[in-house]
Design a protein that fits this description.
The longest helix is centred in the C-terminal third of the chain and has 19 residues. This protein is elongated. The chain has three domains: 35 residues, no CATH class; 66 residues, Phosphorylase Kinase, domain 1, CATH 3.30.200.210; 80 residues, no CATH class. With 190 residues, it is α+β, with helices and mostly antiparallel strands. The chain starts with 5 loop residues before the first helix and ends with a strand. A three-stranded antiparallel β-sheet has the order 1-2-3. Strands 4-5 form a two-stranded antiparallel ribbon. Bound molecules: iron/sulfur cluster. Iron/sulfur cluster (SF4) binds next to helix 4.
């Protein structure tokens, strides 16, 4: 006698038809309704080096008086990496994007201070540029101990992430080589 396992029972669809009701069309309609008026943006999950592709559904960005809202994020079925799937972390991306705790502005903690304060992008960029200049001036090595030209910088390191696109990585490499930075690590293993 056929004894279905939990897995085969669910895969067969018996779970949704067991009581005489096939809920699949209704479930598909609800999903269709949810994303029917959204704008789709393709991106990459920021969490780990697998780099799963996602489709972000945004609602309300066509009307001038409506604040855009991310209403759904799903795995990209076109991606050869994850083929539409997401792990539990990736599946929770909508909550991450919409979290009130998400930091969306530059924050600065002065030396010796325990307080973080929000600053503007202009101020943040000026601070970073000044600190990079100061650090580079202190650590730049034009020649090694044998007198060979090396033009290298050992006291600044650069890191990248899996969501950095080819174009971003191209610009980062140009920036890194221009400064002479050697230490470089990138989370992406794509
Ligand atoms: S969905 Fe999961 S496996 Fe894929 S990149 Fe995000 S965290 Fe990594």
């Amino acid at each position: 006698m056929y004894k279905p396992s939990r897995r085969s029972f669910i895969a067969s669809g018996a779970a949704v038809t067991a009581f005489g009701f096939d809920l699949r069309p209704a479930q598909a309609a609800v999903r269709e309704l949810k994303i029917s008026r959204t704008t789709q943006t393709h991106s990459v999950c920021p969490y780990c080096a697998v780099g799963c592709s996602v489709v972000i559904h945004t609602l309300g960005d066509k009307a001038k008086n409506v604040k855009p809202a991310v209403v759904h994020i799903e795995g990209d079925p076109e991606s050869p990496i994850n083929r539409g799937t997401l792990c539990p972390k990736g599946a929770s991306l909508k909550e991450f994007v919409n979290s009130p705790n998400r930091i969306t502005k530059p924050m600065y903690r002065a030396p010796g201070s325990s307080e973080w304060k929000t600053i503007g992008w202009e101020e943040a960029l000026d601070k970073m540029a000044a600190l990079v200049k100061k650090t580079r001036d202190a650590g730049f090595t034009p020649k090694d101990d044998k007198g060979r030209t090396v033009n290298r910088l050992d006291n600044i390191a650069m890191i990248g992430g899996c969501t950095d696109a080819n174009e971003v990585n191209f610009l980062l490499s140009k920036f890194r080589y221009a400064l002479g930075i050697l230490p470089y690590e990138n989370q992406a293993r794509l």
